[in-house]
Amino acid sequence: MNADEECHFREFVAARSRSLLHTAYLPTGDWEQGRDLLQTALAATARRRSKLRDREQPEIYVRRAPYHAQVDRFRLRSWRRETVTDTLPDRPSAQGVDWADTVVQRQDIMAALRRLPKRQRAVVVLRYFEDRPDTEIAATLGVTQGTVRSQTHKALASLRTVLVEAGQSAASSTASERGVVA
User: Fold this and answer.
1) What is the number of other CB atoms lying within 10 angstroms of the CB of residue 118?
2) What angle do CA 151, 84, 112 make, to 5 degrees?
3) Taking CA 93 as the corner, what is the angle to CA 89 and CA 94, rounded to the nearest 5 degrees?
4) Is the Cβ–Cβ distance between 106 and 63 less than 8 Å?
5) Fewest 10 Å CB contacts: which of 59, 91, 97, 181?
6) Could you give the CA distance from residue 66 to residue 53 in angstroms, rounded to a whole number?
7) Considering all CA atoms of the chain, what is the largest pairwise distance in Å, rounded to the nearest integer?
8) 118: closest CA among 163, 61, 73?
9) pLDDT of 47-69, one tens digit each?
10) pLDDT of residue 89
11) Is residue 106's pLDDT more than 90?
12) Whole-model pTM?
């Protein structure tokens, strides 16, 4: 990479780092892992810059790289590190509900996202958090637009089910704490 290309790449990183970090955070649900994914993606982009089709637009490559890096990490990790359960973790009592309820809802959504299969999670992140069209999502993930739509449908159905169950379990735990029988 010559000095001009390096300068251009540094400007790109400075201008787009925040947005790219959010993109890298969403598939993992962890800021530190997101930062690691972003650094990996930026390093790979810098190394392969001469081979990119459009050297003036590295963002397409950088946005795709964290997804692929996360998939690679997921494949390398042992399945035994995660424990699947039928019930969600305990929720705070309704007596202490305040502005923190928004934080709890956000945690529920992130937990539900983490339970989705990797492709469904990627489709949801790209469509609803990144506001990308089907054509761009399909190109990023290397699938057809029909696959994007079907994965979106399945992901939303799963998220609705999980979030409704979370809401019902919270309502039943609140009712039982008050002595109300449902």
Assistant:
1) 14
2) 45
3) 130
4) no
5) 181
6) 19
7) 72
8) 73
9) 776 666 565 567 777 777 777 77
10) 60
11) no
12) 0.45
Residue 54 near residue 8, CB atoms below 8 Å: no
Q: Pick the residue with more confidence: 132 or 54?
A: 132
What's the pLDDT band for 154 if we cut at 50, 70, 90? very high
Cα–Cα distance, 161 to 98 (Å, whole number) = 25
Angle at 120 between CA 149 and CA 102, to 5 degrees: 110
Residue 108: per-residue pLDDT: 84
What is the distance between the alpha carbons of residues 59 and 50, in angstroms, rounded to a whole number? Answer: 14
Read off the pLDDT of each residue in 19-36 and give the average, rounded to a whole number: 83
Read off the pLDDT band of 76 (50, 70, 90).
Answer: low
* Cβ partners under 8 Å of residue 132, min gap 6: 126, 140
Residue with tokens 């390093």: 43
Give the number of C-alpha atoms closer than 13 A to the C-alpha of residue 150, restricted to the C-beta side: 5
Tell me 112's DSSP state: H
Which among 151, 117, 131 has a CA at the least distance from the CA of 23? Answer: 131
Q: Which of the 8 DSSP states describes residue 78?
A: -
Residue 33, sorted as left (phi over 0), alpha (psi -120 to 50) or beta, turns out to be alpha
